[in-house]
Every structure is written in structure tokens, then in C-alpha cells.
Amino acid sequence: MGRLRQKGKAGAAKAYVTRSAAVKKLQCSLADFRRLCILKGIFPREPRHRKRANKGSSAPTSFYYAKDIAYLAHEPVLKKLREHKAFAKKLSRALGRGEWSSAKSLEENRPVYTLDHIIKERYPTFVDAVRDIDDALCIIFLFASLPSSAKVSPSLVENCARLAAEWQLFVMHTNSLQKVFLSIKGIYYQAEVFDQTVTWLIPYQFTQSIPTDVDVRVMLTFLELYQTLLGFVFFKLYTDAGLVYPPPLDAKKDETGAGVGAFSLQEAKRIDSAPARKVKEVEIDGKRVSSKDVRQTIKSISATTGDGDVEMPDTEDVTPNDAAEEDFVQQPSTSNPQETSSLHTLKTLASLPQSGSSKLFAPYTFWLSRETSRPVFEFIVRSFGGRIGWPSTSGSGSPFDETDESITHVIIDRPVVEKPDETEEERERKRRRKHIQPQWVVDCINAGRILLEENYTQGKTLPPHLSPFEGRDDAYDPTLGLIAEDIGMDEDEESEVEDAIEPEETDEEERPEAAALKAAATAEDATALRAAELEAEAAGVDFGTFEKKAKSARKKVKAAEVQPLPEGEEDMNKMMMSNKQRKLYARMKYGEKKRTEEREDLQEKRKKIEKEKKRQAKS
């Protein structure tokens, strides 16, 4: 006879624990339980059958894995929290009795916990930690912009500002920045560190305030974990780059508003001489034998066997630069020595072409006008190899002044105003420099090349600032053209738009641009797409324009391939689904419908704008 299963002793009732039961088992307060769950990365779970997991009760509650709660019971931080609770009771009792010496002794021995072991547990490798610093950077930059208050101490804000400056210094030093987007929420940045894409958000420089409906205690717990995490990550990044961590801070420059310029990067001192090896000794048959004796014996054996003339290369003398400069030598075939290989000689890493986008602004020198954000554009321009200066009203530390002859661009964000008392020297200097709006800098970075300054000059209406991040395939794309009849074009203009939107099926005498677009639309792999791009380049088509048209053509081809289901077949498919699958399918269709309505709404707005522009142009 099998063993009888008791109700509530097996299955979901044993695998899950309610929050109240977990707090009771750990013997801690609800606030400490929340803190432990955040630090250890434990979160509520949704059981398949809530009633079974709750032992027959249908009351709403949160569930956790019983194994996770048992894991928390052995956490050293939980022990420190209990010690802190006892310490607080003893301190309040000593202060109430007027025992000042005892209170002072207790304060000096206050229990303090560290999170180093938690970081090592949650991130076994360094790549795992780099992959997870997106949220950490967002929290750090947010608290660095908050004013100090009763909830947020000044030392906390100062530490967050220091960590934010250290991250920006590293990105500028390694030229790791890839994309920038100016959004309503703030400025999105994307960098590539250790082959991992890191995206973070920085709020604009406005006066920030903490909303009343935000639980600051929860955010401070996350911040406590993220500060420790970033300390580990930054130390590793700076050490691998050969820099001293933490970077030294000049207090005088910091007081005068130098910002990132108050920190200085210093190379770490390398120790060339290797430490002396310890000679180990062991006792064999009553004789003491050292490791040196063992090496000499091995050398003598090699000499007697005839291998003494062979000299092994000393790998310690080979530097990484020598290894990178070593060329690959083409070897003859072992099966047919007379055969000559038709393959090209392999190139070394140093000889491979490197991307020039990291030094995009290296030939240029920028000057910031007083109304532009100096921390933002100092970080962006220096990350791409450019030089930048600013007036003293924006802070100290500018490497040059406004009269410098090497300035090529002036970043200005105010309308054109003629100065009646302007001197001839100032007019000449203004004609020699290009006055552009801040969006030009960001658009150049996202395009990967220097754009024409004509559309971004001072006082002009700027082109749309599009997000460089990839969205959903069915999302609204403002770069695609509109159908001609929707915006009221004549026949000639309609034919021009149709040629720009999609390649038409023509004979062998079609234009090279249309042929390249058709090949890009039907390309099945990266090789065919690359061939189409080369064909368009040979035809003299701009790469950015070709990429937008090819994207539009691929979407149209993809949409044409999707065939709607026959009438009634969709209902039959739903009948074969389970209740859970049917609900999931309904949510998917609802999301698709909402996105379609949103896309059509944006397209309708664009049609109205295009019609209004055409009407104004005719009048």
C-alpha cells in the first residue's frame, strides 16, 4: 500500500509560502523582509493553482518559493538586521537612563553589514555584472540630480554624483558611446562595454523633487545594492584599462563647478620586475629536496636524451603588442607541396580596418553657448574625440576661451539676434565658424557620419529627431513616405513618390537604383543585402536614403506575403485551444489592434501636416 498524502503537506501547498508565513518564519519585520528580498533578488511567484497553494483558501496574497525563504534564513545580512534591532533597544534604554558612557560605547560598536558577498553570489562573472548595470546607472544618475533632504542625505547625493562622473570618465576615455536620444523623459545613452550593450537614462538639469506617492525606502534599498555593484564593476573596468581607481578629485575645481573635469585619470604604475619565487622543500627518504633541485634534474634528463639543443621560447618575454604585430605565414599544403594556395594571407588584428565612428568629432573644436547644457555636450563631444570649450558662466575648467582660432562649430540654442555694436573682428570670426543647434551633434552620432549643417543652422526649423533604437516591425516609421493620393499630389509628383517608396517591376532596362532596391527587398541573407548595398553605392545613391527605402520595400514585401486565414478557420483554431491559450491569444490580438490604431492615427496626423504644407507652398 502506497504512502498516503496528507492535505497541505505536498504539492503546491509545500512548494509555496505566503508572505505572512515567510515573515513569521524569518522572525523579522515586513520592512526588513522587503529589504532582504530586494538585496537577494527574490520576488513573488504566481502558482498555477492559487487555491491549492494557499491550502484551500481563496484570500488574495503574495506567494514565494519555500526554497527561497529557506535560502534567506541563512543570510548574514538577516543576522546583522537582528543585531541592529537589539542595538537600537539597548541604545534607547541607555539614553533614557542617562548612561552616556554606555550609549557612546554602543554607538562605537554599531553593527554594520556589507553586500560584497551578495554581489559575488548574484553575478558569478564580470560579464553578468556589466549586463545588469543599466538599472543601476539610471538610479545613480537620478539620485545624483536630486536635492538633499530629510529622506536623501547629502553624502548619498555626493556619492551618486561621484559614481556618475566615474562612469562618464570611463566612457569618454574608451570612446564607448554609440547612440544618444533626446526624449521627453530625459537623455538616453547607449554604450558598448565588454561586448555588452549598456543603455541608461539621465534626467534633464531641472529642479527635481521627490513625489509623495513614491516609496523612497524601496528606492534607497535598490540604491544601496547598486552602489556596491558599480563599485565592483568600475574597479574592474579601470584596472583593465590601466587606470587608477578611484580617480583623484581636485576639491578646488569641484567647488568651482568643473564637473567631470574635477577628476583626473592617472595610469596605474606597472611593476616590471617579477616577484621572487618561493623555493619549496620536501623531505624524501630523509633528504630535503627543493623545487630548484627538481628543475635542474629535469634539465639534465633533457640533455641526456638529446633534447638539450632545443630552446623553448620564453613566453614571459612576449608582450601583447608583439603578438598583435606578428603576421600570419602561409604554409604549403602537406598533401600536395607543389600546389599553391589561392587564399589570401590572413591579416592581423592591428591591420584590420577599425570603425571611425568613435573619433567622429576628432577634427572639430566646439564652443558651447551659455544657454546650452555643458555637462551633456561635454560628455558627448569628448566621447567621440572632439575638443570643447565653454564660457565661465557654465563652470570652470574650459581648455580654451571664445577667441580661440581653432573653433570650428558653435553650439547655440537661441534665435538669431543682430548686435548693433558688433566689431569687424567678431563678424569675421562669426563667418568663419558654423553656428549649429544642439540636435546636429546628436543626429551626427546616430547617423555615424557628419551631416550637412545647413538644416541645423541657428534659427532654422529642425528636422524630426528620430529614435536610433530599433522598435517593433509593426510600429509607426516616420521615415517612410506617404501614398500620393492621401496628400493630394498631381500625377507627376505621384510618380516620383511611388519611385521613392518601392521599386516597381520593370524590364532589364530598369534604373540601377530601382534594381538595387528590388534586390534589397527580396534579400534572404546578409550577403545578398550587402550586394544590393554595393550596387546602390555604385549607382551613386546615398547610403542613408537607400537604407530607408530598402526598409520600406522589405516591409511591403513582408506584408504582401502574409495571407489572411479563410473565413471560419480562425474560429476553428480557437476551438482547439485551451482556455489559457485562448485568453493569451485574445490579449495578443488586442495588443496588435491597439498598435495598428496608434500607427494609423499617427499616419493620419502626418497626412494633415503634409496637406497643410502643400497648401501653404501653393499660396
UniProtKB/TrEMBL annotation:
Compositionally biased intervals (Acidic residues): 308-320, 490-511
This protein's name: Pescadillo homolog
Lineage top rank: taxon: Eukaryota
Region spans: Disordered: 300-320, 413-433, 490-512, 552-619
Domain BRCT span(s) in chain numbering: 356-458
GO function term, MF aspect, one: RNA binding
Keywords annotated in UniProt: Nucleus, Ribosome biogenesis, rRNA processing
Organism: Hermanssonia centrifuga
Family, as annotated: Belongs to the pescadillo family.
Keyword rRNA processing attributed: yes
UniProt cross-references to SUPFAM superfamilies, sorted A to Z: BRCT domain
Subunit relationships: Component of the NOP7 complex, composed of ERB1, NOP7 and YTM1. Within the NOP7 complex ERB1 appears to interact directly with NOP7 and YTM1. The NOP7 complex also associates with the 66S pre-ribosome.
A UniProt-annotated Pfam family: Pescadillo_N
Localization (cell): Nucleus, Nucleolus; Nucleus, Nucleoplasm
